[in-house]
Design brief:
- The chain is α+β, with helices and mostly antiparallel strands.
- It has seven helices and eight strands.
- The strands form three sheets. It has a four-stranded antiparallel sheet.
- Strand 2 and strand 3 form a beta hairpin.
- Helix 4 runs parallel beside helix 6 and helix 4 packs antiparallel against helix 7.
- The chain is globular.
- The two termini are 28 Å apart.
């Protein structure tokens, strides 16, 4: 798998970030061994094989079709949205979600490390969104997942995540939508803390860019 992703990286000109490379090399970015797979705490996140990532580039995210924006997908949602390393034609780089059914996406994170930290922050604020595989031990499930990844991240982001996990795990109010009523959810951090930390690890002004839908290619 590593060699295949290396080939994709070479063909796109987007270097594999060290943390992502380490996950690929260790097999933690593969669905072959669910017990060792990383980022299980992310909602609706599915790793792509290098072969499938190449197919997504060829079928949809080819820079010729995407107005010069260059993508290297590494995961997808259940609906087919693509998590990608990206280099926009305007020069910005980072990690983004490319929506399969929208004409626009946003560059929220300047690096893979910051992307991972942002996803964990979201998970820490609402453990009810975890996959059913978490069973009756969501705390152990999340802590084990973080342990597979945290040492690969930038030191400042490691400190941020450890500070969150040092807080008491308890029920806190959480609004699932702007007009929704707060619900009590199990969490390490409040929704207000989540929003502040998300702003800290994400781009203050997310860069919007156009996406040509798959059916318009």
């Amino acid at each position: 798998m590593r060699d295949s992703f290396d080939a994709l990286a070479a063909s796109t000109g987007i270097a594999l970030p060290p943390a992502l490379r380490a996950l690929i090399e260790s097999g933690r970015a593969s669905r072959d061994d669910p017990d060792q797979m990383a980022l299980l705490a992310m909602y609706d996140f599915h790793w792509l094989s290098a072969q499938r990532a190449g197919e997504v580039i060829g079928e949809w995210l080819n820079p010729v079709k995407q107005k010069g924006n260059v993508f290297l997908p590494f995961a997808r949602s259940g609906a087919g949205d693509a998590y990608c390393l990206v280099r926009l034609h305007s020069g910005e780089e980072g990690v983004c979600m490319v929506w399969h059914d929208s004409g626009a996406s946003h560059l929220h994170f300047s690096s893979f490390d910051r992307f991972v930290a942002g996803q964990y922050v979201a998970a820490f604020a609402n453990l009810t969104e975890l996959d059913e595989d978490a069973g009756d031990d969501p705390e152990g499930y999340v802590r084990a997942d973080v342990a597979r990844v945290i040492d690969l991240l930038e030191p400042a982001l490691q400190d941020l995540l450890r500070a969150c996990l040092a807080k008491p795990l308890m029920e806190r109010p959480y609004k699932l939508g702007y007009r929704a009523r707060p619900e009590m959810v199990l969490s390490w951090i409040s929704q207000e803390e989540e929003e502040a930390l998300w702003a800290q690890v994400g781009n203050a002004d997310a860069v919007a860019f156009d996406v040509v839908a798959r059916w318009e290619e």
